[in-house]
Write a structure and sequence with these properties.
Order of helices and strands: EEHEEEEHHEHEH
Number of helices: 5
Strand order of the largest sheet: 1-2-7-3-6-8
Structural class: alpha+beta
Number of strands: 8
Number of domains: 1
Distance between the termini: 45 Å
Largest sheet: 6 strands, antiparallel
Radius of gyration: 15 Å
Helix content: 10-25%
Strand content: 25-35%
Length: about 180
């Protein structure tokens, strides 16, 4: 059975993290029958909430993203901000994102074909934080937007996908956990 070398922790009052770094390579390759996905699912709240997927792209990729067209993605780390307020909540949405889909539904499904998920950050609760978290990502020094309007076709955010040339963790986590959030409406 595949080893899941993940860790789960709570930061402050709001943010939980599941590290999936040992699954690098698996998560962009499709479904692996040996992976016990239930071990990840049990760590994810079944309720509603907001999440960030931390993804890694090893080499420059050219990616066609539905109506957004073609975009060049340099190697590095990406943060995708989303929310799960529909049926199944966070658990259903994040389980969807852990699989590589041949027929993409959301913008992130296109990226998942080319990128490995290394971490999942989430916060449970009825308050929609997606736009505030996206704004926080966007305003983090050194961050760029690789694909304008990615994941943001239903709001006024510039994007919900952000590029970090170096690992994301410390700088952004401190900002999200401290409540240094800005809402873009």
């Amino acid at each position: 059975m595949t080893s899941l070398m993940w860790a789960f922790e709570a930061l402050g009052k709001m943010l939980h993290i599941i590290r999936l770094a040992s699954l690098k390579g698996y998560l962009s390759a499709g479904w692996d029958a040996d992976l016990d996905l239930s071990r990840i699912e049990e760590r994810i709240s079944p309720g509603v909430g907001t999440y960030v997927l931390i993804l890694y792209v090893a080499r420059t990729k050219s990616l066609s993203i539905g109506s957004l067209g073609k975009h060049r993605l340099p190697p590095g780390y990406y943060a995708y901000v989303g929310s799960a307020f529909g049926p199944g909540g966070l658990r259903a949405r994040l389980t969807h994102h852990l699989k590589a889909w041949s027929e993409p539904h959301w913008h992130i499904d296109y990226l998942r074909r080319q990128a490995d998920i290394t971490e999942i950050w989430f916060s449970s609760g009825p308050v929609k934080q997606e736009h505030a978290w996206a704004r926080t990502c966007q305003s983090t020094p050194g961050v760029t937007i690789p694909a304008p309007y990615f994941g943001a076709s239903d709001c006024q955010c510039a994007s919900h996908l952000f590029f970090f040339p170096e690992p994301v963790r410390v700088k952004l986590l401190r900002r999200l956990d401290s409540g240094d959030l800005r809402d873009c409406g």
